């Protein structure tokens, strides 16, 4: 069975903005634009029955669409950097979705994800990059940001075991529902009546 994980897709405009960050860092293996994503929960290698159960449970998630944007860049691995990433805005709806997926995975019997959820888009994997080169690369691109975009679904992706960074295959798509508009009547604050005197 291929390795599975849940993720948010990056729309074309934001992906093109990310692609402009490629280059200028010796020892970097850049991720292909079509493989950009935000991992919500790494599931790993599971048998077919478990995979079917995961899909069935994920299909029942009922959460609203939400807005995200990408901003800032950084690296993982301070003394020996191993990847460069773009940051993601703090959206409560994204954290709630990720937490629900984590609960589902644990209920099915998967071990808890040992890593704290740190939303990001991996831009490059680093093999032999020097710390100074990484610091120099990051310093020139720290003001990176994209326009906000609406997240309308999350996906179940698979990857081949031997290759990190893609290509990824979309196994299942799970739509989010349109955010319900709050009725203007319910959202109106009651104003005290003005005195006629």
Concise overview:
The chain has 197 residues and is α+β, with helices and mostly antiparallel strands. 25% of the residues lie in helices and 30% in strands. The strands form three sheets. The chain has a four-stranded antiparallel sheet, covered by helices on one side. The protein has a four-stranded antiparallel sheet with strand order 2-7-6-5, covered by helices on one side. A two-stranded antiparallel ribbon has the order 4-8.
Textual characterization of the structure:
- The chain is an alpha+beta fold and 197 residues long.
- It has one domain: Cyclic Phosphodiesterase, Chain: A (Alpha-Beta Complex).
- It is 25% helix and 30% strand.
- The protein is built from five helices and ten strands.
- It has helices at 12-19, 48-58, 92-108, 131-139, 184-187, and strands at 3-9, 28-30, 37-45, 66-68, 70-76, 83-88, 120-126, 149-151, 153-159, 168-175.
- β9 and β10 form a beta hairpin.
- The chain starts with a strand and ends in a 10-residue tail after the last helix.
């Amino acid at each position: 069975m291929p390795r599975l994980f849940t993720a948010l897709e990056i729309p074309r405009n934001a992906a093109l903005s990310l692609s402009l960050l490629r280059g200028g860092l010796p020892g970097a293996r850049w991720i292909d634009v079509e493989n950009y994503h935000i991992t919500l929960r790494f599931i790993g290698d599971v048998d077919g029955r478990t995979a079917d159960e995961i899909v069935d449970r994920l299909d029942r998630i009922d959460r609203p669409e939400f807005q995200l944007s990408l901003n800032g860049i950084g690296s993982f691995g301070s003394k020996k950097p191993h990847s460069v990433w773009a940051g993601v805005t703090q959206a409560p709806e994204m954290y709630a979705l990720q937490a629900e997926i984590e609960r589902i995975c644990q209920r099915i019997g998967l071990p808890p994800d040992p890593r704290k959820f740190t939303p990001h888009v991996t831009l490059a994997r680093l093999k032999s990059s020097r710390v100074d080169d990484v610091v120099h690369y990051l310093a020139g691109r720290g003001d990176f940001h994209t326009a906000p975009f609406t997240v309308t679904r999350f996906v179940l992706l698979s990857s081949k075991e031997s290759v990190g960074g893609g290509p990824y295959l979309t196994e299942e798509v799970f739509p989010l529902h349109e955010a319900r508009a709050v009725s203007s009547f319910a959202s109106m604050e009651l104003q005290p009546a003005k005195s006629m005197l």
